[in-house]
Each structure stands twice: as structure tokens, then as C-alpha cells.
Design a protein that fits this description.
alpha/beta; 8 strands; 3-stranded antiparallel β-sheet; single chain; 5-stranded parallel β-sheet
Length: 199
């Protein structure tokens, strides 16, 4: 599987964020998108996820499911955790699993991220790190080959970062690919795409 962009141009709010951008990621690989704030890291992930449209250029996925679009084969994990505070941890995850068409056990996914003990707590009671773990559980409960991760290790403590690095390695070993916008080390080998922009 190969995900690539050619001469991609992004404009937001009438301002050009970047232009002429080429990138490529293949199965079994992490592409770490780095650069200063405002350089377009999040915008790039949103373009790939289909949440924004490029002004110019093209983004293509080769080797995926032919009948599915790229957004249908990708998980976008934004810097906001998109949780309903009044719902329990289990209800939040079950909602996303059902909405996105997943078949994996919600209980098993919660156990993998270390939240099995909190399944029946309202999400409002979770710490920032626990909310991040719950968001990561979405990646496990609905299998998709492309992971688009925006600052994925933010709010995670050392054990959480180690856990997530293991999950990323497992995803890559199963033929997945990862594009991650990050300021911090991911704890896993990655090729770097450096974005320009203001210092």
C-alpha cells in the first residue's frame, strides 16, 4: 500500500498554508510530519482524511480497497478527543465502533489501552491521559489501514507512550501505515517530512 501526495496546495481562510508539497508513505512505515506551529501539519492530515480539499495537486492511495475512498480507509485522530462526557467510557467507544462499522470487541480494545477498569465510568471523570487512551482505543475497535495521528502522544505519561508505541508497531506489522504530525518523539522509528513556515 502506498499513500502519496503530489504538488499539494492548501489554502485556509484565504491564506496559503503550503504549496507544491510532495510526500509518500508505504505499508509498514511511519511518516512523522514535523515543523513549527502554523506550518501546516494538521492541515495536511485533514486534507488526507478528506476533511479539507486541496486547492491544487492530488492525494492518492494505491493498494487499498478499490471500492472505498481514502477517508473510508483512514482513521483521523485529532488533537481533540471527541468524547461525550455524559456517556460512559464503554458507551463512547461502542458509539464510534458502531458508527464507523467496526467489529472488534470494545472491551478488548479498552483492555489494550489500559482502560478496562474504567469502562463504566462517565468520560467526564477521565484525566487528559485517560481521554487520550480512549481515543486511541478507537483505532483498535475499527480496523483501518491508514492512521492519521495529530500529536498522538500528547497527555500520555511514559507508560502510555510505551503502550502506544507497541500498538503502532503492531499496526505496521499488519501492513498498515501511519502519518503522524508531532513535536515529540513517537517512540518508534519514523521517516521525517519537515514542513516549512514561521519560526
Amino acid at each position: 500500500m502506498r499513500l502519496s501526495g503530489r504538488c499539494v496546495r492548501c489554502v485556509r481562510g484565504g491564506r496559503e498554508v503550503f504549496s507544491g508539497l510532495d510526500f509518500e508513505a508505504i505499508s509498514g512505515e511511519v511518516l512523522a510530519v514535523t515543523g513549527p506551529n502554523g506550518s501546516g501539519k494538521t492541515s495536511l492530515l485533514r486534507l488526507i482524511a478528506g476533511l479539507l480539499a486541496p486547492v491544487d495537486g492530488a492525494i492518492d492511495l494505491e493498494g487499498g480497497e478499490a471500492e472505498l475512498t481514502l477517508p473510508e480507509q483512514a482513521h483521523y485522530l485529532g488533537h481533540r478527543d471527541a468524547l461525550k462526557p455524559a456517556l460512559s467510557v464503554m458507551e463512547n467507544l461502542a458509539f464510534w465502533r458502531d458508527y464507523l462499522g467496526g467489529e472488534a470487541s470494545a472491551s478488548q480494545s479498552l483492555a489494550q489501552v489500559g482502560l478496562g477498569h474504567a469502562a463504566h465510568l462517565p468520560a467526564a471523570f477521565l484525566s487528559a491521559g485517560q481521554r487520550r487512551r480512549l481515543s486511541i482505543a478507537r483505532l483498535l475497535s475499527v480496523q483501518r489501514p491508514v492512521w492519521l495521528l495529530d500529536e498522538p502522544t500528547s497527555a500520555l505519561d511514559a507508560s502510555g507512550q510505551e503502550m502506544f508505541a507497541g500498538l503502532m508497531r503492531d499496526h505496521l506489522a499488519q501492513g498498515g501505515l501511519i502519518i503522524a504530525a508531532t513535536h515529540a518523539p513517537l517512540g518508534i522509528e519514523a521517516r521525517e517530512l519537515r514542513m516549512g513556515g514561521p519560526a
